[in-house]
């Protein structure tokens, strides 16, 4: 296929070429992979400013997306990709292959650094989903930090830069500039821009932004961060968000209130116990969806109200495919039992067949977990107009990435995203939390947004 880039894609490619360390906050659907590959091709074969390129990505993206993009576009088909996946022996063999790009899943970054150490061979590194390095205590971050001085160019890609707030920015930005803009340590970053909130003794559980810290952070990173939102550059069909209230009545409501108050539901075989606040929150979300795990990992059924609501939604879809996101295994099994036509997305090559079947409208009801469907899946070619969140989650990143599998460039019709929200339950708190986080992230995206047309006028 001939590549005719949009203006924003040309700009993204040029910024990669002009900036050794850069984060592209390209919202889902803006074609960040092809923009990046175009720049890499030029760095390798025109500018001779790159030699060995490493791409770090989520597993499914590493397996499929980067190779598929090079095969898709005429100007990239000469690029050779080696997938550093599978067993240790298979990974070592892939590292020795004659290639232009080596693609590895992020879980094996620590292993890769251990293989090379100070003899790190990759002068250019692309981190697909930079936000997955937001935890400064994670092994993957610490490993990449060790070899960061050996990297000449680093490109970070994500549509969700700070899913849980500005504290998430320090580690990704550090990988770009080694602490030049936000400080060499997370402690220094906290002291500069935040004040302690809730604490227990010397342990701080919550940090509050200082006055004007948001503006100062945005200003500090603006020269190495480019932000683009799909709504600014694409004429996408409308996305309509709806909450469908689900009422818990009778015994279900009583059981929910009892666990919430007493932290215990007694059963003859195995009790349901919430020993901590985190466990209680999770158990209440489960109950809101209709079932809950007991102490022996058995399932206690609570209600079918969400299944009934989902049945109404499927009927209203008038035969068009419906996509459903679930978070709990017992939700998956209960949906499958009620709707035998439902299918899950399998792993590996079988999963690629499922994607093709979905896009060809051969799957009427697709059940996805947000963790496995968050990145790199193009599911927008089906006639699906309805996305349903059966279980509610806390992660803004997973929520936005999952919804963008359908509502992205190439979709030809409006998409309705429906959340089944059990009234007066933890469901409402989870949905409210996502909305607050989204507001904060939108502020970040707006603050560093690329004003391409304005730049053109000035130049």
Structural write-up:
The chain has 459 residues and is of the alpha/beta class. The protein has 2 domains: 7-233, Rossmann fold (3-Layer(aba) Sandwich); 239-433, Rossmann fold (3-Layer(aba) Sandwich), CATH 3.40.50.300. Helix content is 42%, strand content 19%. The chain is built from 18 helices and 21 strands. Strands 3-4-2-5-6-1-11 form a 7-stranded parallel sheet, with helices on both faces. Helix 6 links the parallel strand 5 and strand 6 (153-157). It is globular.
Strand and helix layout:
Elements: H1 7-18, E1 21-26, H2 32-45, E2 53-57, H3 59-72, E3 81-84, H4 88-95, E4 101-105, H5 109-116, E5 124-128, H6 139-147, E6 153-157, H7 170-177, H8 186-193, E7 194-196, E8 199-200, E9 203-204, E10 207-209, H9 213-221, E11 225-228, H10 230-233, E12 239-246, H11 250-262, E13 264-265, E14 272-273, H12 277-289, E15 291-293, E16 299-301, H13 305-316, E17 322-325, H14 329-338, E18 342-344, H15 348-359, E19 365-368, E20 386-389, H16 396-403, E21 415-422, H17 426-447, H18 452-458
Helix pairs in contact: 1-2, 5-6, 11-12
CATH architecture of the largest domain: 3-Layer(aba) Sandwich
Strand order across the biggest sheet?
3-4-2-5-6-1-11
Q: Tell me the helix content.
A: 40-55%
The major pleated sheet works out as: 7 strands, parallel
* CATH homologous superfamily title of the largest domain: Tandem AAA-ATPase domain
What would you report as the Rg, rounded to the nearest angstrom? 23 Å
Task: Note poorly predicted spans.
Answer: none
Number of structural units classed as domains: 2
Count of individual beta strands: 21
Which class do the helix and strand fractions yield? alpha/beta
The CATH class of the largest domain, by name, is: Alpha Beta
Quaternary structure annotation: single chain
The averaged pLDDT comes out at 87
Instruction: Assign the CATH topology of the largest domain.
Output: Rossmann fold
What's the overall geometry?
globular
Structure annotation, total helices: 18
């Amino acid at each position: 296929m001939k590549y005719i880039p949009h203006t924003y894609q040309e700009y993204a490619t040029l910024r990669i070429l002009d900036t050794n360390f850069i984060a592209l906050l390209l919202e889902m659907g803006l074609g960040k992979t092809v923009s990046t590959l175009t720049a890499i091709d030029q760095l390798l074969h025109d500018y001779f400013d790159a030699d060995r390129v490493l791409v770090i990505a989520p597993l499914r993206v590493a397996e499929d997306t980067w190779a598929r993009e090079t095969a898709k576009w005429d100007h990239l088909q000469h690029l050779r990709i080696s997938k550093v996946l599978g067993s240790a022996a298979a990974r070592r063999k892939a590292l020795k292959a004659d290639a232009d790009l080596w693609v590895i899943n992020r879980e094996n970054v620590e292993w890769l650094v251990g293989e090379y150490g100070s003899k790190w061979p990759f002068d250019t590194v692309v981190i697909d989903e930079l936000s997955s390095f937001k935890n400064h205590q994670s092994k993957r971050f610490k490993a990449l930090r060790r070899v960061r001085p050996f990297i000449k160019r680093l490109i970070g890609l994500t549509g969700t830069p700070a899913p849980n707030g500005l504290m998430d920015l320090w580690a990704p930005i550090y990988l770009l500039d080694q602490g030049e803009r936000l400080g060499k340590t997370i402690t220094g970053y906290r002291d500069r821009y935040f004040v302690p909130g809730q604490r227990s003794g010397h342990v701080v559980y919550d940090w509050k932004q200082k006055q004007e810290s948001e503006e100062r952070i945005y200003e500090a990173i603006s020269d190495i961060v480019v932000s683009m939102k799909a709504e600014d550059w694409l004429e996408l069909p409308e996305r309509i968000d709806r909450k469908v209230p689900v009422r818990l009545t009778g015994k279900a409501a009583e059981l929910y209130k009892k666990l919430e108050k007493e932290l215990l539901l007694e059963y003859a075989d195995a009790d349901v116990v919430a020993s901590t606040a985190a466990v209680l929150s999770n158990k209440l979300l489960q109950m809101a969806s209709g079932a809950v795990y007991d102490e022996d990992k058995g399932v206690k059924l609570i209600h079918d109200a969400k299944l009934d609501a989902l049945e109404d939604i499927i009927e209203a879809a008038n035969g068009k495919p419906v996509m459903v996101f679930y978070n709990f295994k017992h939700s998956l099994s209960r949906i499958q039992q009620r709707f035998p036509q439902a299918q899950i997305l399998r792993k590996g090559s079988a999963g690629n067949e499922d994607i093709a079947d979905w896009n060809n409208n051969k799957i009427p009801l697709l059940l996805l977990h947000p963790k496995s469907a968050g990145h790199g899946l193009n599911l927008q070619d089906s006639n699906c107009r309805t996305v349903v969140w059966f279980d509610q989650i806390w992660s803004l990143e997973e929520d936005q990435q999952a919804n963008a599998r359908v509502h992205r460039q190439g979709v030809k019709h409006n998409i309705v995203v429906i959340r089944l929200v059990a009234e007066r339950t933890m469901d409402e708190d989870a949905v409210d939390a996502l909305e607050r986080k989204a507001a904060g992230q939108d502020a970040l995206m707006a603050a560093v947004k690329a004003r391409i047309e304005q730049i053109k006028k000035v130049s």
